[in-house]
Design goal:
Length: 340
């Protein structure tokens, strides 16, 4: 049952990155959109993320619940030493959701619409930035349970070059996912080409930020290169992601709108697999060589069994409901005017 819970944890993280990441990426795309095209971008974005923009956070909730119930030592360590980036990320989620709702449904059109727009786009960038910082901090080796000062315990555990570079890389891949997904929601060839250009820009940004991650890892003494290229699963995953990237751009040139989404999701899946497989089951790497393991730091066996059963039974109800949610919105598209 323990491995059932671990699989659910990994899949929940992956789905939040793929779906919630594309959700955040839509705001990032809007941030880099000119005023002349902003209204069309907003309408396309709403048509794409409107049905599931709230449901995406379910995967984050599942991740937190699994850690809280099944791996309390890991949950406690991360929530204590990384409470500052966690708080900023959660505030970003709240601000983004509030702005998204108000700018579409506010009954009064006034100067507040511009404020809602700014809150939405900036929180769309800040939230995945700190999500990536949290992920980078977990494996950076900077969390020090023996820290004796506030700075070493609660600031330098996450404020370091490696964690910040992972944050920027996360922002870039969220924008990349959104641009690829939004291509299939366009109504005109001009809009399609515009989102293709955005996808190219975000691809370049992801490559640059990915390079910065390796540079920062080398500077901080983190064996990231070995994690990625020092084993056959990592090499295979990176090769598969690279081949799929080339295939995706070929299909885009041929006018394909939907298969490219699967390929983009596959690339992110391979990246996550590469960066987690090497040090599994250790999910948190502590300073001075310590670690927290999913196999050694789990909760009571009966708790794990109950959690696994709850996840399995819950899937029977949740997954069909999500499929129907997306299906129902596709059958009856929502066309809501966006205030600018």
């Amino acid at each position: 049952m323990l491995y059932v819970v671990i699989i659910y944890l990994w899949v929940a993280i992956l789905l939040y990155l793929l779906l919630g990441g594309a959700d955040f990426g839509a705001g990032i795309i809007e941030l880099f959109t000119s005023e002349a095209n902003k209204n069309r971008t907003q309408k396309t974005m709403y048509r794409a993320i409107g049905p599931i923009w709230e449901a995406n956070h379910m995967w984050l909730i599942i991740t937190i619940v699994i850690l809280f119930v099944g791996f309390p030592a890991i949950y406690t360590t991360m929530s204590v030493y990384l409470h500052i980036p966690l708080t900023i990320m959660l505030l970003g989620i709240i601000a983004r959701g509030t702005a998204f709702a108000f700018r579409h449904y506010d009954a009064i059109v006034d100067d507040m619409q511009g404020l809602y727009d700014r809150i939405f786009v900036y929180s769309s960038a800040v939230t995945p930035l700190f999500l990536g910082i949290i992920a980078g901090s977990a494996v950076s080796g900077h969390i020090d349970p023996q820290a004796t000062t506030f700075l070493s315990a609660y600031i330098f555990s996450w404020l370091n070059w490696f964690s910040v570079s992972v944050g920027f890389f996360t922002v870039a891949i969220c924008g990349y996912l959104a641009a690829i997904y939004l291509i299939g929601e366009t109504d005109t060839e001009a809009d399609r080409q515009r989102f293709i250009r955005k996808a190219r820009f975000m691809t370049g940004a992801a490559v640059v930020c990915g390079g910065l991650v390796f540079v920062a890892a080398y500077a901080d003494g983190i064996p990231l290169f070995d994690w990625v290229f020092g084993n056959w699963p990592g090499l295979t995953a990176i090769l598969a992601a690279t081949v799929s990237l080339g295939l995706m751009w070929y299909l885009l040139a041929k006018g394909n709108r939907y298969t490219v989404r699967v390929l983009a999701g596959f690339q992110i899946t391979m990246i996550l697999l590469t960066t987690t497989a090497r040090h599994f089951p250790n999910i948190v790497l502590l300073k001075n060589g310590g670690y927290l393991s999913l196999l050694e730091n789990q909760g009571h066996a009966k708790t794990i069994d109950s959690l696994a059963i709850a996840l399995l039974v819950g899937s029977i109800f949740i997954l069909p409901a999500l499929v129907y949610l997306v299906y129902s919105f596709q059958k009856k598209p929502v066309d809501v005017d966006v205030h600018v």
